[in-house]
Amino acid sequence: MELYQLEHPSDRVFLCTRSDCNEVADYLELSEEGGEEVFCASHTSSEKHVSVLRKRACHTGYLFRSRPVAA
Ligand SMILES: [Zn+2]
């Protein structure tokens, strides 16, 4: 498991992948299998604050719910 600070693309915002959660995701978690999941501060498994993590963009954004920033 690798943890990163999620960098949002300029045109959309990723939401936490927990189905009952509508918070904006701040954490990107990479599994050993290469899977990516994004979580808000409440649902991440990270014990570190997001501000101390390295930044990384999400590459499989189509897996996640997203919405236009301007909506
Ligand atoms: Zn959440």
Ordered list of secondary-structure elements with their pairings:
Layout: E1 2-7, E2 12-14, E3 27-30, E4 36-39, E5 55-57, E6 66-68
Parallel strand pairs: 1-5
Antiparallel strand pairs: 1-3, 2-6, 3-4
The protein binds zinc ion (ZN).
The site of zinc ion has 8 residues, from loops.
Plain-language structure description:
- The chain is an all-beta fold.
- It has one domain.
- It is 0% helix and 32% strand.
- It contains no helices and six strands.
- The strands form two sheets. It has a four-stranded mixed beta sheet, with no helix packed on it. A two-stranded antiparallel sheet has the order 2-6.
- Zinc ion (ZN) binds next to loops.
- Zinc ion binds next to loops.
* Portion in strands: 25-35%
Tell me, rounded to a whole number, the average pLDDT.
86
Number of separate structural domains: 1
The proportion of residues forming helix, as a percent range, comes to: under 10%
The low-pLDDT segments are none
Radius of gyration: 11 Å
Enumerate how many helices there are, as a single number.
Answer: 0
H/E series: EEEEEE
Structural class: mainly beta
Distance between the termini: 33 Å
Bound molecules: zinc ion
